[in-house]
Amino acid sequence: MSSGIPDVLKEWEVLEKEFYTVQETHRLYMQKLDEVSKLQKRFSSSISQQKKSLKDISRSVQKCRKGLSEEEAKPLDDIRSQIRERQNIFYEMEAFLPKKNGLYLSLVLGSVNLNLLNKQSKTAYKDEYERFKLYVTVILLVLAFLCRFIVSYRFVDAVLNFLLVWFYCTLTLRESVLISNGSRIKGWWVAHHYISTFLSGVMLTWPEGKLYHMFRNQFLAYSMYQSFLQLLQYYYQSGCLYRLKALGERHNLDLTVEGFQSWMWRGLTFLLPFLFFGHFWQLFNGISLYLMSQLPECVEWQVSMCGHCFLVLFMGNFFTTLAVVRHKMHQKNQAKAKTQ
Amino acid sequence: MALEKCQTEWDEIEKEYQQLQETHKVYRQKLDELTSLQAICSSAISKQRKGLKDLKHSLHKCALTSDEKQSEQLKDIESQIKDKQHVFFDMEAYLPKKNGLYLNLVLGNVNVTLLSNQAKFAYKDEYEKFKLYLTIILMFGAMACLFFFNYRVTDEIFNFLLVWYYCTLTIRESILMSNGSRIKGWWVLHHYVSTFLSGVMLTWPEGSMYQMFRSQFLAFSIYQSFLQFLQYYYQSGCLYRLRALGERNQLDLTVEGFQSWMWRGLTFLLPFLFFGHFWQLYNAITLFTLANHEDCKEWQVFMLGLTFMVLFLGNFLTTLKVVHQKIQKNKEKLQKAE
């Protein structure tokens, strides 16, 4: 659509007028931004003050409690339970305030605020995290397959290892952001990714040689199984989580994990043997590497280091999963005892 | 009695808590209002942007069939459009926005816009400090590897640190750009290339080829870190002065090269910079020679040679351009004076 000069000039004038409106809107926005920032600061400091007062009164209550009977101490116990409840409420409130980043995020990103300020964006971010995990897992599966069956160059192996290092690093970053936004991912499942980063890094530096080739196929097959398992987990866990969230039984920001968690007893028990098989494969890797490090021709430090890593991974995974199984059995026993 | 004291204390806290709940409600409300304003602002700006783009198209078509006077008008409008685009860039520095490809991949959809000038400036200072501290650590690391430890393990740790350092720089710079900082072209690319270089160094296995290049590489790293330190020290002083005079943007960073504003007092840095560039060229040539050596079977040698060559060309030509521009300006000044 060609327009003559006068049309162009007219269009320009219209845009100029709109531009002034945009400037006005932006000015109002900056004003409101300033207002909200001040309110934020005030709100933030009131919460910290309240938290401090709660701590002080908690201590006084503790002192008062000593030497009192059950009956007399009832109001104090009441206060104590209210304090606990209050702390949970503050945790929820603070999810909508900017907060300082932990050590890891501070080191990598600096002091940019990563708090997503509404439930919708938090859930969207979590969904994005799950999708990211899914896509990269598929890519890793394909690449490991390629390395195992089609090409056999150290260069392509290095690409796979770099991708693994980058993948686990990025996971740790995104998980730190999720935790900062109220997601309750705990303990081993986070440490697990840091260890996997380290393991992949060490694999990366392992030079070409006889011992490398002895372990290569086992490692690639293991990587393929791991990726396959993670895909299984993602597929079944997300379906299950969706159901449970709809029933209101799980928190919105609960993630699919690489292990077995208590909520998975409702329909996902069949995954357990697959998981344990993966754990024992890790043990097998650890033992193979340990045996290789005893060989006379072994000069690389990577062999024993990778062996240690695999053992740590095995123990962490196995015992964490075992704890869930034991907890369930304990619950079953208690239920049985009650009905008898 | 102690019990009563506790009770009174608790009642006080309850009162404050009620107030807090009120503030919370108001805060959430205002936050929602802010969010909707943000959305309105963002969409208004994108609409204007699109309108301007379409106008530019029409302008170009008209420019072909216009006379002298109309050409003047059209040129004027075009320069005004460019100004507007700068204004929008600055406006959007205060609005939450979608992250670019790189940040999206690494962080996902979390917004990294810092919403106040103070916060932006603090973030930039933090970036500079991070660069400074890591540069010092890298310098000592390289010295330790060169003079004290001669193990592949310590070399690996040093290389991993380099990879991590450059990766982190790229992430932080992406965040700065999202917040209105105008870091351009080669200076951003440079860090991605350096990440790749350090990554390849990492995979280079122990061997006679590696040992032949190792000392040269570590000495080069020491010089690089020293040079970056010099740059930081002198540039930040200069930038501070220029900002106070209002001649530079608040979010301008110290860089690893030479930029036009540095002619005012930092010209002495140029020889140091060129020496660094030529060292990169020397590294590339050494590596190419090693690649042709009969014992050489590692792909890393040739790849590193190429990468050093790319770094040399990028750095040298970019710096040369700045020098060239200055010489041109000086010539024009002389011509005007005559």
From TrEMBL, chain A:
The keyword Transmembrane applies. InterPro entries: TMEM120A/B. It is found in: Nucleus inner membrane. Keywords: Membrane, Transmembrane, Transmembrane helix. It is a multi-pass membrane protein. GO terms for cellular component: nuclear inner membrane. The chain crosses the membrane at residues 132-153, 189-207, 301-325. The keyword Membrane applies. GO terms for biological process: fat cell differentiation. It holds the Pfam family TMEM120A-B. It comes from the Eukaryota. Belongs to the TMEM120 family. PANTHER family: TRANSMEMBRANE PROTEIN 120A, TRANSMEMBRANE PROTEIN INDUCED BY TUMOR NECROSIS FACTOR ALPHA. This is Transmembrane protein 120A. It comes from Alosa alosa.
TrEMBL record, chain B:
It is found in: Nucleus inner membrane. It is a multi-pass membrane protein. InterPro entries: TMEM120A/B. The chain crosses the membrane at residues 130-151, 157-175, 187-205, 299-323. It comes from the Eukaryota. Belongs to the TMEM120 family. This is Transmembrane protein 120B. It comes from Alosa alosa.
